[in-house]
Amino acid sequence: MNVLIRIKRYDPERDNKPYWDEFRVEADPIDRLLDALNTIKWTMDGTLTFRRSCAHGVCGSDAMRINGRNRLACKVLMRDVGNKVTIEPMLGYAVIKDLVVDMDRFFDKYRSIKPFLITHDNEPGTERLQSPAERARYDEGTKCILCGACTGSCPSIWGNPDWVGPASIVNAHRFIFDSRDQGAAERLQLLSHKDGVWRCRTIFNCADACPRGIPVTDLIEQVKRAVVYGGPEDA
Description:
This protein has helices spanning 33-43, 78-81, 104-112, 132-136, 149-152, 155-159, 166-176, 184-191, 205-209, 216-229; strands spanning 2-9, 19-26, 63-66, 69-72, 84-88, 95-97, 100-101. With 235 residues, it is α+β, with helices and mostly antiparallel strands. The chain has two domains: 2-101, Ubiquitin-like (UB roll) (Roll); 104-229, Fumarate Reductase Iron-sulfur Protein, Chain B, domain 2, CATH 1.10.1060. The strands form two sheets. Strands 2-1-5-3-4 form a five-stranded mixed β-sheet. A two-stranded antiparallel ribbon has the order 6-7. The longest helix has 14 residues, at 216-229. Belongs to the succinate dehydrogenase/fumarate reductase iron-sulfur protein family.
């Protein structure tokens, strides 16, 4: 199939404003969009800049706005975008160059919710055991690959860059509802302020954008209930 690929490009060191660049690419219907981008970079324009690494939907590095929706280029097949596709950098992030966005603030917010196991008791003599039900309670949050697609799809972030964002709340959920963790109160306090969990307007863009199928909005609602009830037990 012959595909017209329109890419929104911008080099802050050279360009006054973003502009659209077009490329014609021959692709197999079951090629990934990442394959087409590689073809452009390797054979047409080596200055095209985008992130990619594992190419298997695990690292999350090639998140971008594809036909108006945040997706991973390595998971989108050419047959699913048709003969014309528009690619832009994700919204809500400063553009470093072309499709590469600055993720520093995203990871600062992620670190702010203390995404690690917190315990205050003495180290146990054996491993910290959990039942299958206890493990299942926070399983969805463990699937996050920190691609930023959910956060970049959220109008609340577009309007208020200081908001902690859905990805950070999902990762907070993963520990708040972990039966082994003792830092829930600390995280819930962090998320109870004006730029915390209440900034979510339940728009569901985040759940649609997640390449791992995480029910992001539902997890955020669970954290909201935990804030209201003072802990995860009844949330």
